[in-house]
Amino acid sequence: MKISLLRIFHKRSVQYSAEHKVSLADFTPSYKYTILPNLSLCHDSREREPLMVVTVLSVASHSELRRAIRESWASAKYSDSIKTGRVVVFFILSSPASIYDVYKVQKEQVKYNDLIVTDLPETYENLFLKVYASLVFHQRYCPSARFLMKVDEDIAVHLDRMIESWTIDDQASRSLFCDVKRKTRRITDPRHKWSVLL
Question: Is the pTM of this model over 0.85?
Answer without folding.
Answer: no
